[in-house]
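Entry:
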Amino acid sequence: MDAKDGLPNRDSYLTLAREGTNKRTIERSRFLGSAGKVTTEDQAREFLRQVRQIHSDATHNCCAWVLGTGGEHQFADDNGEPSGSAGRPILGAIASLGLTNVCVVVTRYYGGKKLGIRGLIDAYGTTARELLEELGNREEVLHDRLEVVCAYPEADRILYLLQQMDARILERQYTAIVRIEAAVRRRDVPEAVERLESFGEVRVL
């Protein structure tokens, strides 16, 4: 199922094209955005830890992350700012661009002038969104591994079929029989299994 369908079992998702930072000054407060590519909560927390270590003298290091191929795991933290004024706007910026497996930290150095709740929401959300738009996005395609076991005469035919499906050959073993392992785009797996079963024993790994 393609990610654009917005349905389960999607086999691709949008994430950052690259990691990076930006900075803005709003009413004398400095806002520094940092965005990283992560795939697990542990990686997201480690990214946050590194940013907080670099900016340990900052007034706030607020963050949000979205994880999972469907963006199903989300987290936001205001880090001392009024509830809902920082983490949620950062999270909203990530979600509005359809990104996942992303962690964004927006660091604030207080400049002496209060922004109010509305001002904070705008500052954190805009800093995050501008950073993500600047870094761009890329599609990550998910693959499943297939193993095909066949007799020698069928090997070339199987390799040809896999090539037609843009599969990536991971391993080939030639013993008494031939064993081929390939990475096939998830949405193409049912068709691949159906076509390959005519020439050998197929298993999804």
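The chain has two domains: 3-140, 143-204.
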